[in-house]
Amino acid sequence: MNIQIAGTGRHLPEDVLTNADLEKMVATSNQWIVERTGIHERRIAGKGVCASDLAAPAAQQALAAAGIKPEEVDLIIVGTSTPDMYFPSTACFVQAKIGAVNAVAFDVLAACSGFIYGLSMAENFLKGGKFKTALVIGAEVYSSIINWEDRTTCVLFGDGAGAVVLRAGEGTPGILSTHIFSDGTKAGDLYTPGGGSVNRFTPELVTMKKYALTMKGNSTFKVAVKSMADAARIALEKNGVSASDLKMVVPHQANQRIISAVAKQLGLDESLFYSNLERYGNTAAASIPIALDEVVREGKAVKGDLILMVTFGGGFTWGSALIRL
Ligand code: ACO
Question: What is the rounded CA–CA span in Å between residue 121 and residue 133?
Fold first, then answer.
């Protein structure tokens, strides 16, 4: 039983927030943001636009590319840490919006690693033989958990969604392997402290903006580089593949300096690493499927090409996946 990537899709909100806009909101500068992150602008979901509103059109685009009807989908997994609601899952909202009436739907929470975690889960479900067709989606509205007065985080993130359709069958393998990892001892380095059962919603919590994302940027940066490089090596070794066999690396889009440092640790040319950070910032679990869809639709990689995806996020969580288009 092999798993093929049958189609990809993405959806970005239209509203653009530029570095110049942020200069008017917090004590920052275009120069600082560009030099430290590589980000020039990000997309922001309009008022009332939720994660499933972005996920549904991305999923529909991926299904259209695969030539698969919504009723044929058996499984929907949405990687998100900015769900529509605590429950039901965002995946259930997506199921209803696209009419995937025969699907089982649930979310996976692994922050920026949510898409690779979802891909790994879908791979195992499909290999188990119970399901044939899966939609794996990364969808985020990080603008809803940002403290817009905190310059250390508000310049980094953006909103968006990306999706892939996976199909189990006899053809050549599309997913060669997935590898996922966690370290819960570092939870306090990157988290949203309030709103859960630890710090429940109160007027004080909202006044103190405790619902917002908090990050120790510098230590996260160092662990991210090492973890992503390790996960990349594991995927290559497991498949007996060398970097020269790769068409491209599609990394999580957190920071251009992280991408450069990962490339350096692996002894690879940075040009092998796809980047759209400049336009979208860090869209967390959505960043890899958005980038993958751009790569596919713009013909930067074609059928048969090997692509390595690597990620890192809150938890800490990290992972990799080696795929053949
Ligand atoms: N504008 C201007 N100055 C700023 C800004 C800003 N937007 N933000 C911070 N600064 C200042 C700081 O206050 C500090 O000033 P000080 O020296 O006077 O104290 C100085 O710039 C340097 O700050 P650092 O935090 O050391 O900057 P760094 O070079 O580490 O860059 C960044 C910060 C971009 C956050 C980087 O650490 C990073 O990318 N970290 C990793 C992010 C990541 O990978 N997250 C994981 C995925 S996200 C997820 O899972 C949800």
Answer: 13
Distance from the CA of 155 to the center of ligand 1, in angstroms?
9
Residue 279 CA to residue 42 CA, distance in Å, equals 6
Residue with CA nearest ligand 1 atom 35: 217
pLDDT at 135 over 90: yes
Q: Counting beta carbons within 10 angstroms of the beta carbon of residue 53, is it exposed (0 to 12), middle (13 to 18) or buried (19 or more)?
A: buried
The mean per-residue pLDDT over the stretch 88-114 comes to 98
- % of residues, the chain, pLDDT over 70: 100
Asked if 252 is an active-site residue, the reply is: yes
* Residue located nearest, by CA, to atom 32 of ligand 1: 217
Q: Does position 1 have pLDDT exceeding 90, yes or no? A: no
Is 282 catalytic? The answer is yes
Q: Which residues pair with 248 in a beta bridge?
A: 307
Annotated catalytic residue 112: yes
- The helix or strand, by DSSP H or E, that contains position 96, with its residue range, turns out to be helix 90-98
Helices 51-66, 90-98: axis angle to 10 degrees equals 50
Nearest CA to ligand 1 atom 14: 152
Task: Give dist(CA 286, CA 141) in Å, integer.
Answer: 10
Q: Is the pLDDT of residue 287 over 90?
A: yes
Residue 256 to residue 258: CA distance in whole angstroms: 5
> Are residues 140 and 78 in contact, defined by beta-carbon separation less than 8 angstroms?
no
pLDDT at 226: 98
Question: Which domains are assigned to the chain?
Answer: 2-171 (3.40.47.10), 176-274+286-324 (3.40.47.10)
Select which of 112, 154, 179, 255 is catalytic: 112
Tell me, in angstroms, the distance from the centre of ligand 1 to residue 254's CA: 11
Q: Three-class SS of residue 186? A: helix
Q: What are the tokens at 226?
A: 């090492």
